[in-house]
Give the backbone structure.
Amino acid sequence: MRIDVVGRHFTLTDAIREHASKKALKLERYSDQIQNVTVTIDGQDHHHSGEYGVELVVDVPRHDDFIARTQDQDVYQAIDQVVQKGTRQLADFKDKLKTENR
């Protein structure tokens, strides 16, 4: 699984990159078929000043990409929230696969 952390409109520090990578690694619990995870952090949101926009894109074969977005004033909380949304999407997909195979 490849994890890409991208920063837009602000300087991406090593601490933020490490936090996002560590949180994204937890997605492996829900699907072992994840090929790529991209975390995009946008530091300049035009609609709400002072907020960070975070987008999570999870690439899984034989399915459209799972996309989760969130905004928060704290970049670490925004990362946590977006990974939680992605986790929920993957868990729902896994449950759906289990019930379809019955």
The first strand starts at residue 2 and ends at 8. The chain has a mean pLDDT of 90. Residues 2-100 form a domain with the Double Stranded RNA Binding Domain fold (CATH 3.30.160.100).
